[in-house]
């Protein structure tokens, strides 16, 4: 299964990520491309402990079984999924700077993430192993790249 701790998966996802531009059109959802880039960076900032996120969402997701089903079994489809408050680019007004600078910051966060060995708890999934964080990060990034046709 794809995971940000597999270098070939990182290379493939960054290749797709680099194809995103301000002109990239969403195929579903409400975020624009720039908001999506910052939203993805926010997830990595939470993982790295750079941004605090309180526990929220269904308690079942913080169990081993709930987390396993969400990360390894159920495909993430089109449409709106629950978003942790601290990552909600629309409700919390994502801080957008220059698009290319924000893309560069995301790539830096990916590199920091892949070099890290311990992570902060996820607001929905709680304390997770390195493997689970890598799977979640890959699955989340992949979901939004598909949203923008990448």
- The helical percent reads 40-55%
Shape field: globular
Number of helices: 5
**If you average the pLDDT, what whole number results?**
93
By DSSP, the count of extended strands is 0
CATH architecture: Up-down Bundle
The arrangement of helices and strands along the chain is HHHHH
CATH topology: Four Helix Bundle (Hemerythrin (Met), subunit A)
Low-confidence stretches: none
Indicate the structural class: mainly alpha
Rg, please?
A: 14 Å
Which CATH first-tier class would you pick? Mainly Alpha
Largest sheet report: none
Strand content: under 5%
| Terminal CA distance | 19 Å
Q: Count structural domains.
A: 1
Give a summary of the structure in a few sentences.
It is built from 5 helices and no strands.
How would you describe what is shown here?
- There is one protein chain.
- The chain is mainly α and 150 residues long.
- It has one domain (7-147): Four Helix Bundle (Hemerythrin (Met), subunit A) (Up-down Bundle).
- 48% of the residues lie in helices and 0% in strands.
- The protein is built from 5 helices and no strands.
- It is globular and about 40 Å long.
């Amino acid at each position: 299964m794809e995971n940000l701790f597999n270098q070939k998966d990182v290379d493939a996802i960054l290749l797709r990520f680099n194809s995103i531009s301000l002109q990239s059109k969403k195929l579903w959802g409400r975020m624009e491309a720039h908001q999506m880039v910052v939203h993805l960076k926010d997830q990595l900032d939470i993982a790295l402990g750079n941004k605090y996120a309180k526990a929220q969402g269904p308690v079942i997701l913080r169990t081993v079984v709930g987390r396993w089903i969400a990360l390894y079994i159920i495909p993430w489809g089109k449409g709106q999924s629950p978003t942790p408050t601290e990552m909600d680019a629309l409700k919390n007004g994502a801080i957008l700077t220059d698009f290319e600078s924000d893309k560069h910051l995301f790539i830096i966060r990916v590199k920091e993430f892949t070099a890290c060995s311990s992570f902060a708890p996820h607001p929905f999934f709680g304390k997770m192993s390195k493997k689970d964080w890598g799977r979640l990060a890959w699955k989340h990034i992949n979901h939004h790249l598909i949203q923008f046709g990448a």
